[in-house]
Amino acid sequence: MPAVIDLSKPVADILREGTHAAHERAEHSKGAQWLARGELDKQEYVRFLMMLYHVYNAFERALEQHATHPVLAPTHNPGLFARSANLAADISYLLEVSEASWQSHPLHVALQAAPPRALSQYVGRIEELAAGPDPSTLLAHAYVRYLGDLSGGQFIRRRISKAYGLDDSAGVSFYEFRPLGGTTSASDAAANAGEMKRIKEWYREGMNAGVGDNEDLKAAMLDEANVAFAFNTALFDELKAPSQEEVPSSPVDLPSPLHSPVDPSFSSPIITDVGHDSALLKHLKQSGQSKTVFVADQAPSEEPKFSAVSVIAFIVAVSIAHFVLVVGGFTGIKGYAKLEGLQAWLDNYFGTTTQA
């Protein structure tokens, strides 16, 4: 059932709560599972990195373009977050080519010649926001990617290193971050788990500062963050099954928001536009109600299920127990005495002592 999101909360809390269902869908997609288990063929993993390169290249250029925007400025730290160069280095290493030549590799040439629909729409959406009158919601795309890299990406790094026999940071620099406020020296080149947690806290604080108390903007951020998750789920769906696994007979459909060309209608079923006045907020304004709630999709919870056989077996067991207690005289004061005698016999037989 839908979850009610309180728009008076800080935007970081709103995004964490309001994207839960979308995050679950992305995490449990087949492609994400192959990636997390390190099962993708090496060439397919490189192709995935190439797709990510184009996504990061698009929104990192957009963030740089709008670096002084009041919503984006508090979290703008390319020295800490920029992933494009790391992706290029990993791709080059895995292909065993120079960083200057990987884009002319046949694998990348083929990707450019026939880019997956999900990739084209993802990049197109970012470019559209960057060219629009208000680029604020680029922050939602950065939030989805960067905080994901700082969290689940660290688990994936270990699996990838093991799957493809990679040592140190060679081939997995995409998953590495420098310490917050660190330098480029070798001694602090990679942040540890505690430092990554501090980076995430710093980022959330910057988001809250940039968005402030603007509830219209908070609703737009939540809407766009769910769109970003849908794009990432669609990228996972583009991954080819591992060679040892049977390929499905029919392709996996892209999430419904991605079936149409890039336009501002990419949104959840509840919110119908990505501008700062969502459909719900417009209704609240017109009716004079407070703008404090936002309805977001939530994954349905499964109710416990019991088979008919289990229920019947339980009823029969209770009936037999009742029959034994009554017929055997184990009720009332006399019954209590009998039970004490039975317990003493069990203790003696098994050599145990019952403790209260």
UniProtKB/TrEMBL annotation:
Membrane-crossing segments per the record: 306-330
Keywords, comma-separated and alphabetical: Heme, Iron, Membrane, Metal-binding, Transmembrane, Transmembrane helix
GO molecular-function term, one example from the UniProt record: heme oxygenase (decyclizing) activity
BP GO terms, sorted: heme oxidation
CDD domains named among the record's database cross-references: HemeO
PANTHER family: HEME OXYGENASE
Stated name of the protein: Heme oxygenase-like protein
Organism lineage string: Eukaryota, Fungi, Dikarya, Basidiomycota, Agaricomycotina
